[in-house]
Amino acid sequence: MLNIALCDDDRKAVSRYAGLIRQIAAKHQIPIEISYFDSGESLFQQYREKMEDLDIVYLDILMGGMNGMDTARKLRDNKCKAQIVFLTNDEECVYDAFEVSAIQYLVKEDTSFSKFERVFLKAAKLIVKRAGEMFTFEFDGTKGIVPIREISYFEIHRRLVTIHYGEGKTCKFYGNMSQLEEHLSKYNFIRAHRSFLIQLPYIAMFRQRELLLKTGEAVPIGNTYEQPLKEAFAGYISELSIYCEKETAL
């Protein structure tokens, strides 16, 4: 999920840009969470102890109190690695944007939907590159990305694959389960059933003929897959225990 901060003291602008961000994220099936701030001070106070949580920051430059450029400098001084996009009517500040490694400078009321979309997707792509380990897919002509760590399992029905991720969220694409299994095995994904590919860390409990996941969902276990699944889970737990022991020793 991308954590986005929208900082502007103009409520109408906040509403407009939030709508654009949601529309683009929905179009490309990108999970997001937006936080709203009416000042640079409130944004900084909210994230001063957790700069790593920020992915994209949309900043108005001309705000009362600490302006957008000073806010960006303060974020960078505190090791914020988020992608910064400036939103403003003041074109004269464009050259200052390079100082804080902003990826784009958008002039209010003079930015088309397509340009806003390109900038958002550019920021998302840079975040994916930074974070790594993202699952990408395409469905009905649109591309989507989901952090692999958030995927609990894949389910397939007649080549239509459903990704189950986050808190009860889903998205779909057409694919092949065997190819998925081969591609994702290095991320601790394994077949529990011919129609289900699960991520081992999400297993909470083995029950008769089914798995209970930490999300509260139940996934069936096929006879053919039961023993390999149990062995893989035992191996995963064993490796985790060894890792924890090493960490404790350190």
Automatic annotation (TrEMBL):
SUPFAM superfamilies (UniProt xref): CheY-like
Coiled-coil features, chain-numbered ranges: none
Pfam families: LytTR (PF04397), Response_reg (PF00072)
Annotated InterPro entries: CheY-like_superfamily (IPR011006), LytR-like (IPR046947), LytTR_DNA-bd_dom (IPR007492), Sig_transdc_resp-reg_receiver (IPR001789)
Gene3D superfamilies: 3.40.50.2300, LytTr DNA-binding domain
Modified residues (4-aspartylphosphate): D60
GO-annotated molecular function: DNA binding; phosphorelay response regulator activity
Highest taxon of source: Bacteria
Record keywords: Phosphoprotein
Residue stretches making up the Response regulatory domain: 3-123
Domain (HTH LytTR-type) ranges: 145-235
Function: May play the central regulatory role in sporulation. It may be an element of the effector pathway responsible for the activation of sporulation genes in response to nutritional stress. Spo0A may act in concert with spo0H (a sigma factor) to control the expression of some genes that are critical to the sporulation process.
Identification of the protein by name: Stage 0 sporulation protein A homolog
Source organism (scientific name): Blautia liquoris
